Amino acid sequence: MPLRIRRYAENDSIFVGEDYLIKGVAGAILWKLLRSYVDERRTDHSNRELRLDPAIRLPDLSENLEARLILLQRRLEERCPGLRIEKTGRGRFRLNVLRPVTLSEIQPNSRPQRAPPSIN
To answer: CA–CA separation, 75 vs 38, rounded Å?
Structure first.
């Protein structure tokens, strides 16, 4: 059964099934990684690409990104066994997707929007 992942665009809250996972900058990071996975089958990423993405709304402090990634990594380990983040080198990491995912995004004042078909 696929992991059903919802993003509430208003505050970047991420839910897996019915359970809250994370929000804010860490939620925006996870959503970007998941969209890249579903849209492009891409799993490898760099800190630099995240820093340059305005959609993530990362504060100016450079160490802030590392802290958010560590928080996200721990939260996935605790609450979402189907997703993992692992370091692959200096400033590089991989999103490991261990189960199929289905994404949906909820815009403010709207009903859920279905993402393209899930990818195994």
So the answer is: 21
The number of domains in the chain is: 1
Amino acid at residue number 100: P
CA distance 12 to 25: 7
The pLDDT tens digits for 15-74 are 999 999 999 999 999 999 999 999 999 999 999 999 888 888 887 665 688 888 999 999
Domain assignment of residue 28, yes or no: yes
User: How do residues 86-116 score in pLDDT, each as one tens digit?
Assistant: 999 999 999 999 999 999 999 887 655 555 5
Exposed/middle/buried for residue 50 (C-beta within 10 Å: 0-12, 13-18, 19+): buried
Q: Report if residue 53 sits inside a domain.
A: yes
60 burial (CB, 10 Å; 0-12 / 13-18 / 19+) is exposed
The answer to whether position 112 is within a domain reads no
